[in-house]
């Protein structure tokens, strides 16, 4: 029988207590505030409850006098007279004696019944006397509390919970009505259990009000804002949660509606009608009128309409712009057909007639004028133009002082990596300036907690584990932050810490956001700002003065032949760290051949001197005014500049071309401008050569163009569509001798999710027998993969070597630990080179095709047909081996459907039984013969494939320390790859595999096939 606390509270008894379990006894103890020891037994707990509840008056102790009397009356009858011990009595005498004893017993029972009747009569007389005596008129000083023991019933009052105030009063009234407590003691019993805010508001009441239960109830409900409006909002905003059933949601809605109606004292249909009409009426009113109606506590719709009209006439100026209340969550589209259109038209026309007093345009006001805001922003960024001399003044802004004080705290060793930026919470336009430290040795960006008001709304829902120098792991929550800096800008997930290790730094920018960028890119701005970083500690009087370099009109006319392209788009993309000052009278020896960052401020005189000092142009000077053997080419000196003259001949209509003979110091700049510039487009050798030849010439121009284009880093990384890296000669995988000595594993997926939750396939294949196995998995986690592999190994034995790709699940520590425990060597294939385990990849293609056909034909889940399709693959012949995988593993032909049909048609019976020794010897001989044939067939197939593959292959090799470009995946997109680098070759593993150092990647070294290198 199930124990119910409410029934025990209404009628407590020792018998019910003895039938309870220990858990029920603990619930009773908590309900009646009985402290239970920790290691108490059930019997001890029961005795403790009996004592405590008896002390509280819940269990009545039987009166000894009455009990003794009842024991005499209702107990065992008095001992009968002893039967005579004579043994010579006859049967008749014995019967007579027995009848006498029965009569005596019957008389005793009648006496007991009479005594019970007298007791009931006395109780009835006493009750009638108590009911008939008017206590109020006879003794005014006597109260109902004199006959009602409050102390005995306090324990029956349920404890007060501030989270369930409304339901608490309902439970209290139900218990009081059941136990027939006098109404005038309800307030006293209730105040004994109140706590928190309810107790505070009750103590503020007067003595007269504190004795009234209704006043206390209304005061407590008002203190917890449980007024009719609060119940209405709870009912309207109540929505179903994800963990809630529809039945629970319906009960919650029902309870909230009843509480709303009960708070409004609605008991009839007319009252409910007025309640709903009033709610709909208030939803269409401005907020001020709704507040006024709530203060007046109006109930009917007619009274509310009259009061609203009076309030509107009294406060005309308040409603210049109507303000709506927040609509209810329910969709209410029923409205007046004319009123809604009229209001919408009126508001639209009022909005269109607004005119801005600044730009005099309609549709907005001056407070939101975009022209005025744009002008204010320009004024804030504009700095006064310097005249003659520039003097750096210390900033007077308080915020700037704060930033400078922060930067002053930073150690000088970090200042080259310090920059400024701003950040804000995602969704909040208010940004906060921050000091950023670029940390190239960290993988997680961190921000100080006090920079922004982080909350639950900005929390990503996940944490990140940060591993520091102390080799301890710290958990840091991730928040969405909007970052604006010279490195990166956008919305990112940033880890938040209370403090950062570098004083004065607000944000540590790590490699997860900045990547390989160490310093911010130079930025060209329209209005240059004053460099406030230059300061003199001596004081403001000793601030340095810088002369303003202004060029007058006379100087411009003097140097009119010098064209300065340093500030135009013709300048190189990577300017030198220190500018090269080119003077007119400077010697030509300052131009070195390896200076590829030469500024284009060279004049005509410098060009002439460079040509005269260049020994490689001596043959050209010797051919001056002479015609070469081609007759169309000649050299001449025009105004001191050595030129090359080319004429097409008499049979052509083209004009002759004059080309400047470029000296050796200027050739790299000409090549870079013709090939590397943004307007050059990194064209090929032929087009670059033709472009230079139109204006310039020097001996060996074609070979220099070829070398320059072939060594261009951008062209090597990007490549061209028609340029394909020649494949290296094929190296066939050596033939394995024993079955399941070398196992290849891989994963397929994600596939369509089945009813059982499977979405991936773990494929396993023996490299020797090509025996495949496919295990459906729900996820690609390493634990599920390890369980499937152990199950496979328990059937076919532990392999010596297992091969896989470089997936994260196969490269995890758990997988490596399991393989080490099983003494299995783990080898990985080259990244992005599926040919390393081509047998398994080819099986993937076959398996996907079979699964697609199975699902199309049978309309069943793919994991249901996986065992059937594996049987089909295992029992068919493998082309490279010449045998089926089942034949090589089991040594006999499996019984397939075709063999079953053949046996049925021919009525074949099972073969004759042979001796075990004969069977074993023949089995081993047959299996040995099959193995020899399969290895020979596989070697022949590999030789044929190598001959076909090596027709277009080219043998290549790299040495340790060579710089190569590697085909690697794009960061953030694993399915896209491009050539990156250059990287250094660490060592050579085989004829086709190399270990490459990739310091800017997550994996510092990786194994790459030679076909991925160039």
Automatic annotation (TrEMBL):
<dbReference type="Pfam" id="PF02023">
    <property type="entry name" value="SCAN"/>
</dbReference>
<dbReference type="InterPro" id="IPR038269">
    <property type="entry name" value="SCAN_sf"/>
</dbReference>
<feature type="domain" description="Integrase catalytic">
    <location>
        <begin position="735"/>
        <end position="893"/>
    </location>
</feature>
<dbReference type="InterPro" id="IPR012337">
    <property type="entry name" value="RNaseH-like_sf"/>
</dbReference>
<dbReference type="Pfam" id="PF17921">
    <property type="entry name" value="Integrase_H2C2"/>
</dbReference>
<dbReference type="InterPro" id="IPR036875">
    <property type="entry name" value="Znf_CCHC_sf"/>
</dbReference>
<dbReference type="GO" id="GO:0008270">
    <property type="term" value="F:zinc ion binding"/>
</dbReference>
<dbReference type="InterPro" id="IPR003309">
    <property type="entry name" value="SCAN_dom"/>
</dbReference>
<dbReference type="Pfam" id="PF22938">
    <property type="entry name" value="Integrase_p58_C"/>
</dbReference>
<dbReference type="GO" id="GO:0015074">
    <property type="term" value="P:DNA integration"/>
</dbReference>
<dbReference type="GO" id="GO:0003676">
    <property type="term" value="F:nucleic acid binding"/>
</dbReference>
<protein>
    <recommendedName>
        <fullName>Gypsy retrotransposon integrase-like protein 1</fullName>
    </recommendedName>
</protein>
<dbReference type="InterPro" id="IPR054465">
    <property type="entry name" value="Integrase_p58-like_C"/>
</dbReference>
<dbReference type="InterPro" id="IPR001584">
    <property type="entry name" value="Integrase_cat-core"/>
</dbReference>
<dbReference type="InterPro" id="IPR036397">
    <property type="entry name" value="RNaseH_sf"/>
</dbReference>
<dbReference type="Pfam" id="PF00665">
    <property type="entry name" value="rve"/>
</dbReference>
<dbReference type="InterPro" id="IPR041588">
    <property type="entry name" value="Integrase_H2C2"/>
</dbReference>
